[in-house]
Amino acid sequence: MSNKEVKAALKSARDAIRNKEYKEALKHCKAVLKQEKNNYNAWVFIGLAAAELEQPDQAKGAYKKAIELEPNQLLAWQGLANLYEKPNQTDVRGDLADVYQKLLQLYESGDKQKWYDVCNKLVELYHQEKKYLEVAETWQKLIQMKQEEGAEKAELHQLWKKMIQLLKDSTQNQDNKAEQSLLTAFEHAVNSADTVPGEDHQNLYKDFIQCLSKFPHETARLEKACHDMMALYPTVSYPLEVLCLHFVQSGTLSEEALDCFSRLLEMDASSGPGIIGFGIKCLQEKKYGEAVKSLTEGLQKTSECPAAWHYLAEAQMKIHKHRDAVLSCNQAFKALGTPEGPSLRWKNRILQLKAEALIKIADADAAEEAIQSLEQIVDASSDPVVLALRGRAYLNKGLMDQASKISQELLSSHSDLAESHALEGFIHYSQKNYEHAERSFLNAIERKDETAEYHQYLGLTYWFMSDETKKDKGKALTQFLKAAKLDTYLGRVFCYLGNYYRDIAGDKSRARGCYKKAFELDGTDEESGTAAVDLSVELGDMDTALSILNEVTEKASTGGAKWAWLHRGLYYLRTGQPSQAVADLQAALRADPKDSNCWESLGEAYLSRGSYSTALKSFRKASELNPELVYSIYKAAAVEQILGKYENAIATYQQILKKTEDYVPALKGLGECYLMLARSALDDYLDRKAVDYIEQALEFFTRATKLRPDVSCLWKLLGDTCTSVHVISPTKVNVQVLGSLLGKDAGKEMLKKSELLRLGGRCYGRALKLMPLPSIWCDLGINYYRQAEDLTAVGTDMNEITELLEKSLQCLKKAVRLDSKNHLCWNALGVVASCSAIGNYALAQHSFIKSVQAEQINVVAWTNLGVLYLSTGNIEQAHEAFKIAQSLEPSYLLCWIGQALIAESIGSYDTMDLFRHTTELSMHTEGAKGYAHWVCSTLQDKSNRNTELYLYNIVQMNAVPAAQVVMSKYTERNPDDASAFTMLGYLNEYLDLKRQAADAYERAASLLKNSEDTEKYHMAMQNYGRSLCALGQCDKAIEVYTSIPLTEFDAIVGIALAYFKKGLLQESMKAYEKALSVAESEQDKAHILTALAIIEYKQNKVDAAKTLLFKCSLKEPSTESLKALCTLGLVKQDATLATAALKELLKHEKGDDRIYERCLIACAVYALQGRNVEVQREVSKAIHSNPDNPALWSLLSRLVPLYASQKAKGGAVAGTIAHVLDVNHGKEVLLNIAVNQLAAGCHMLEDEKNNPLKNIQKAIHLCPDNPAAWAVLMAACHAENTVVCLTNTHPKRTDLEMTLVSTVSAKTGKNNLPHNYIRNLEDWCLCQAITSLEETGKLSEAEALCTKGLKSCPEHPALFLLLRQIQCKQLLQSHKELPDNVLEELHKTVMTSSTSVAAWQADVSNEHWPSLVQEATTEALKLSSCPLAALLQALLQYNRKMGARETRRMLERVVYQPGNPETIVSVARWYLLQHLYAKDDHELIHVLVENAKANGDVRALELNEKLSASA
């Protein structure tokens, strides 16, 4: 290739590169190189093309080849630079720097602009590599070049500033040349600024000074720069602040430094460095408090000054804030960074100071930290002072050997050093070698007399050495005074001075001053603070004590200053400020939650405040923490007593007595608790229980008086206890009293009511001797009055009664003379004066009025005044008095009784309401008897049953049970009131409480037996006889009736009924005929004729019975006779008679009173007529009218399975409603619910809690003697076992058949049930057991049971059918054809039971006889809608033609028909699912699967999964 061709090729390559056809360019270049291997341009072009084609190695090689050929040519160097600058080129920065250096050489004499550009790139590259020296040198070349070109001052200024920016991080690399270049740049920049002074120039100067402050060796330069800036900017504080910090850090506080501090504070009072400087100045002047304050404030603003932190720690040490000093030292380390040069010196000083502070803290952890700090000090081993500190640290840590070793070394090498002897003294002092310690401290003081600590410890040595040295003024006191003089901040010295003045000198005032000073110096010194407070209290200066405590508590953090909180809490408790005491004691407990005494005090505070529950918790906590605190346990019991938790209080008091048998407060508390329990029992009319409590109360009070006979309140409580029996019947009061109370040596004596009341009077007399209080005179007067009441009740001589009442009057007059403002005494005087035996009504009125005047809100006195007016016939005044009492306290019972008595006396309609209100408020004998009287009167008037008044007063107000309850209590308290027992018997009879009624009537008769009023006695005997007859005690009833003259209608009817119930029909008939002759009203005659008809029927004289009943119906038929007539028709299966009687009955009886009986009779008639649907409808109609009648719901649940089994789920719901409305129906209703659920096909898998098995188990639990319940249990077990078979789980209730059959037989034997019912029940159970045995495969046992049953009843068709089925099954299981004679026998048996569904459901599994199965199931379906028969037909169709549409239709009918049992539906669903998968009908499969999910059919869902997996 010629030279011309080479040029042409290179031109083509250049054009290709221009057109970005780099591969084409490479071809041309390679062609050139074949001709000329050293062609420079070709290698350059190759490098450029290869670089663009992302072939960096080839490009690099080409450029280097070109450079090798022509090293001073620019093109290759430029190309190589461009290549290295590409972002994908890494690790080429060193090469790139070399390339830039070469380009600078090449451009230097040529293109200056390109030189600058490359220079900038090179500087940026060095800066990225943090080669600050190269950056400085290169940039200085650039500036030099600009200067040579004559650049302007502003441009050079910007270049110097740029250099500062580039080198500002060089200070971290500690490169001295780079640092000098940076400082040079700063100087040039500062000097080349245009606008001086100016903001930019000022900021630049600040940066310059800040940079200089980082270089410790540039102090002169720093000072000059600061002074120069101050000269330029005299109002700017920054240079002054830097200069101040420089002086602080240097540690040399010259006049110049102090002048700087002053100037800075004048310029800016809030400047951190200025405040720090002022603090250091204060430290020099020994103003330590101000120094700490100023240094702390300054360091909050300027925290990065380790020297300032050191000065702060030093100041804190001076005022003995050692822990604060440690924290300050730690902050100094943090600010110090990596110590070098001068910083190292600061580090050693800070470490030593920290160690000193930790040693002064004087605990093991601090000592360990001190040792670690001392180990960090450089050249520590050569410094004896540091060595002495180490010795003290070892001593604090308990390392005595190491401390002693250091001490010996120091004494041998530095015996002239005070610290050496002091260390020896500290060691001896800690070992209590006080003589040696004295010598050592004296040696230390000789060498360094101005050290307060040495004088302090010498004083302590004298203090503990002996009593002589302690009391010697020249010893301990002198040293303490010297220490206090040398160091006025040494709090412990002042504390010991306080101890000296208090305990030795006896100068409490001076001692308090010392303690106060000690506490002011060290707020954590509890000893000094407590002593200062206690002495202030002793000196009567409560203000000072409280001010100290307030000061401490204000400063205290949470959980601190326990002593102060405790002292202030106790102060508040003493001064009657319980709320403040609670708050303070709680704060004390936050500091120490384990302090039992503090908990006890808190309990007292809560108790004073009235917070009884929290007080109880506090006392319990105190006793838990310290079980020996008997007082806390006692107070806990006392609080429980206040809260009315008497049983708990008794247990707690007993706990105390186990430890301390003679603890009188506990004995008193026990007695009070039993007395309060007795009063509570008396309020509830539980008199026998009250007597027991009174006996126990007397025992404990007696024990207490035996130990402390001088305590008046114990005798008063004994009197109260004895007097409390006044309301109890004398027959119930037999109380054992300790002999010591009766003046006997030992043992116990039984006292009656009168004796106990007299004993109470003597106890009050004893209390009066000890303390003649007016309240006790009042109690004694009341006791005499109660004694008189008791004697009046038993009919004693009137002279004795009058004498007692006179004594009572005198005692009460004495009480009101002693305390005329006591309303209770006046009231009691009025009560006694108004009693009939005294009858001084004027005095009574005066007393009640005085009582009201003494106490305005006095409901008792107003009520008593009302009673006084009522008894004297002043009804209007009585009404006004009672009205005022009601307004004062609407819940006070007696004023309402007074109003009720007024209403009764004037014949008001409100009387019954008022008496009822008294019983609602509380129990009282007057109110109870009054209300019972009105209830009984209302009940006896049978003409008012449908009136609103009766419905409200009796029905809505639940009057009968309420009256019965209060009369039961009344008769307990008043066992001799015959009329009360008569009313109680009547109410019990009304409530069907037969036994209680008989008891009440018997008591009434016994009380009236010897009375003169024979008419009342005969009436009581009639009542008693009637109640005995109701109980079934006919013999006794006949005996009672024959003991009185039988002239009245009720008596004759009563004995007639007794004869009838006894079975003496002839005697009964004669009595009824006699009653018929006596009867006055037509209704009574109708009732007697009905009774006679019943007797005739009993004698099998049906026609005579009919005649008598028709005779009743001729004139005005009674509902009872119509019911009897209807029942006769039902019994004799006479539908015509029953229907006619029912029609008449429905005409005459329209109300809701006897809706249940009417409904039951109507249902029986409909059932007799065969109208099953009407049976269920009749009950439903009745429920619709009376939805709140539980008996009707119960009846519905009983009838549904018999007459509407397809609605069995509704029957179960009806049973549940009946149970909710009235739990008393539970026995019957649960049985009905279970039967309905069985009929509906419910089982345990559907609902674990509500299913037949669970409900029948509940029914049996409630009534285990009901044989029907056991029969239903058998059915439920059978149903559950059937479900278990369908779900492929193991049966859980096997082998129960024979047990349950035996149980049913046993239960029917015990109950007095109709013979037919028993037989049917036992037959059903036998058939059920046989069926269960057959289905579980126990055919031989089933056959044996059948045979056994047929022996006792050979003509039983159901048993015979079962036997034939079992026999056929056995033959079928042998896989042999049934002989014709066997089939004939089976056919005969089925035909004999053609009305039985079960007969047609013959289990013929042989495939040759589908027609026989079809016929049997068809017949079964004719008899009733039998789901099982429908299933069998569907399975026959499935067996004949699985895929037919008819198969699906028949199976769907079973699955989706509502009311079908789930067990049958589950089988049909299983087969239907297989049919649908065979037809591949996904839509219907989805519907069926959803149905299975809704009903919880696990088997169907599992089959679906298997079929879908295989599909």
Molecular structure report:
This protein has about 1500 residues and is mainly α. About 75% of the residues lie in helices and about 0% in strands. It is built from 81 helices and two strands. It has a two-stranded antiparallel sheet.
For this entry, give a set of tags.
1511 residues, 81 helices, 77% helix, flat
Mean pLDDT value: 81
Strand content: under 5%
* Apparent shape: flat
List segments where confidence is low: pLDDT < 50 over at least 5 consecutive residues: 1394-1406
Number of helices: 81
Write the topology of this structure.
Layout: H1 3-18, H2 22-35, H3 40-52, H4 56-69, H5 74-85, H6 93-108, H7 112-128, H8 132-148, H9 153-167, H10 176-191, H11 199-213, H12 219-232, H13 238-250, H14 255-267, H15 272-284, H16 288-301, H17 306-318, H18 322-336, H19 342-361, H20 364-375, H21 384-397, H22 400-413, H23 418-430, H24 434-447, H25 452-465, H26 467-471, H27 473-486, H28 491-505, H29 508-521, H30 526-538, H31 542-555, H32 562-574, H33 578-591, H34 596-609, H35 612-625, H36 630-642, H37 646-659, H38 664-683, H39 687-707, H40 712-723, E1 735-738, E2 748-751, H41 753-770, H42 774-794, H43 798-818, H44 823-834, H45 841-854, H46 859-871, H47 875-888, H48 893-906, H49 911-921, H50 925-940, H51 948-956, H52 959-973, H53 978-990, H54 994-1008, H55 1014-1031, H56 1034-1042, H57 1049-1062, H58 1065-1078, H59 1082-1098, H60 1102-1114, H61 1119-1131, H62 1135-1148, H63 1155-1169, H64 1172-1185, H65 1190-1203, H66 1208-1221, H67 1226-1239, H68 1252-1262, H69 1267-1286, H70 1297-1310, H71 1315-1335, H72 1339-1352, H73 1357-1373, H74 1380-1392, H75 1397-1400, H76 1410-1423, H77 1427-1440, H78 1445-1456, ...
Antiparallel strand pairs: 1-2
